[in-house]
Model the fold of this input.
Amino acid sequence: MAAGCAAWAVWLTINLMEDPRGPAGESRLRDESYSHDESYLRMALDLAREAEQTGEVPIGAVVVYQDRVVGRGRNSPVATSDPTAHAEILALREAGAALGNYRLEGATLYVTIEPCVMCAGALVAARVSRLVFGARDLRFGGVRSKFRVADAEVLNHRVEIVEGVLGAECTALMQDFFGGRRKNSG
Ligand code: ZN
Done:
């Protein structure tokens, strides 16, 4: 009996001790979700590099559902003669097919560059829960730079948006690509 009481006291002490550590625990959780985001965004960066190798603008995307990659896409409108073949659209298509559902509630889309208006609209139509992107697209960006399509107040579904994950690497890839192209054509 006495031993049982002692064990309970230890349990209580440990649990009470955790309370003051609340803020530290929260930031630890944030760190963990950031490193999760970072590792999925790294996969998107690999797909962006694949796109670059085939002469396409280097953008890559993955869709993650329940901590599993269910869709991948690399930008390929030139190779497919398809103006809608953006990385996000291809990743969403693959995810829908993998899950057998055109609605992707609970899924997160990771993409290296801010989605355009078309892709932002597709995210809303698919009811994607979260969007994580690396760097803004100041010319065509549809969720922050030019428009705010994915989380506009007038919509019945709003996507939670996180930006700036591996932003420097995503920007560098684009700058190298367009810089290289200018050099080649000049
Ligand atoms: Zn797009």
Remarks:
- The first helix runs from residue 2 to 18.
- The mean pLDDT is 87.
- The CA atoms of residues 5 and 11 lie 10 Å apart.
- Strands lie at 60-65, 68-74, 108-113, 130-135, 160-163.
